[in-house]
């Protein structure tokens, strides 16, 4: 899917800075700047490497100050940058002509009969990235292209100080214990005095009360002179020495060709037809990374903020791996979680070298069971279930039934309860100091929908594998009856949680799990009522609100200080991933209901607009609850992409055939 945005879409630098591009390298490293070519966040970087995949990230190059100098001496900037002193800010919107992306981000600039096309590329599995400039100059005017890299050489999130030393010789830079090699086809001009520039201003971070300033270092300018009708320039950065690798150099043409072919093959293997689905296949692949500590694949939860987490991975792999037919990667991920299962719980935070995993989740283990069932449904790989996964599923079932950590246990009713004190075990897991904005201790609605599906899935595999657990059918029926008795609200929706006689009757999207999971726990009449309630109170074309707008606790925007954002995070903010269970409930169980199918088809049509906002070609983590017209949080979120992709795949294969 080609995305093309022209000058007509962006009237000034501020509009250009509202959107970003994203390239990733399969190690957790990335390249992401605004469409103005600037950094508007501390997390922006032209070249963010990954020293230990996937979460030990290191910012080598902030951005490029690239300028074209014409024969009359006039100098024009290609890339913008806001600075603390507004008089030092660079506004390059005059030259901006177009941004396009099919496989790689391309920027086109135009001035006085000279057209400059800048293409960015990263290499998969390596800390190597490049910038290519192709010049169309039919009048054969003489010009100079000056490219000045702005270096950072700090771990992601850290600030550059004036005391940090830099050692530079042509083709190699050393600082802060790391080395960066670079090569090009121009002429290198080193500065006699290194230029420390303390004035970067991050407008996006300022809005959210984050640290909004930082410094960068300029060490040299690469000059490219031209006067031919067509010119070709490049600069390549590589930091593989940090990972102890000595690899053959690539030329810029092979870097671009190989990356385009790799993406094309990935899309082809997924087998999806619509341009929207194919674009989400490309987007989903950007989250799949190698994890050094487990020597396996994993899934980054979101760029630019997040690491790889258990809960997010179990949801994201439905689209990122299963909907793309990447079954080998899925099995690597499953094996890692199975290996680290402890007392029926799987990690919510993967282990880094020398650091123990964190197990603070009640839903990740149940999601693992559902994910294994979804894997089996699309792959038919019963051998993997029998030989590698079955014992883990049994352990999860037994520990949840008999009781395990975090007060997770089965009640007499058959329902699962968990959490106490400051525990935040479900996906609504924000805790700010001693404040829990959304405490959900006790029996939560989605946890018990997942529990019912866990019992049903284990019973399904017992039958397929010739194993026997005769208590399962009766227990599943008891859970189903208790669920309907305890959670169904006479107003036609599901209560969110209950504990010790207290019932939370807020209208929240967690009830969507009861209609979207593969084994229905509600009657068709009740399921339809729940779907329509969600549609009335929570639905938007970008996801589901986390709380009904009519609720007195509803927060309409997700901006401001850390405290203000945490207080709003699950109190009305729109979450992209929650749309998945809602729409899958319609597709799986009401595909003949024209009224409900209209909701699915309108979503597919309208959600495509999200690809053109925020991170181009990606789907964001969240949007404001009141008027969801601007992305917030992570500008690219794995489970948001995954769940929409899963809906598109099911729709293509089961509805439009």
Task: Describe the protein in words.
With 657 residues, the chain is of the alpha+beta class. The chain has two domains: 3-261, Distorted Sandwich (Beta-galactosidase, Chain A, domain 5); 271-654, Glycosyltransferase, CATH 1.50.10. The chain contains 16 helices and 33 strands. The chain has a nine-stranded antiparallel β-sheet. Strands 2, 3, 4, 5, 6, 11, 15 and 16 form an eight-stranded antiparallel β-sheet that branches. Strands 28-29-30-31-32 form a five-stranded antiparallel β-sheet. Strand 13 and strand 14 form a beta hairpin. Helix 3 packs across helix 4 and helix 9 (445-465) packs antiparallel against helix 10 (472-487).
- Main sheet makeup: 9 strands, antiparallel
**N- to C-terminal distance:** 22 Å
* CATH class (first level) name of the largest domain: Mainly Alpha
Output mean pLDDT.
Answer: 96
Write the CATH architecture name of the largest domain.
Alpha/alpha barrel
The spatial strand order of the largest sheet comes to: 1-7-8-9-10-17-14-13-12
Give the class from helix and strand content and strand pairing: alpha+beta
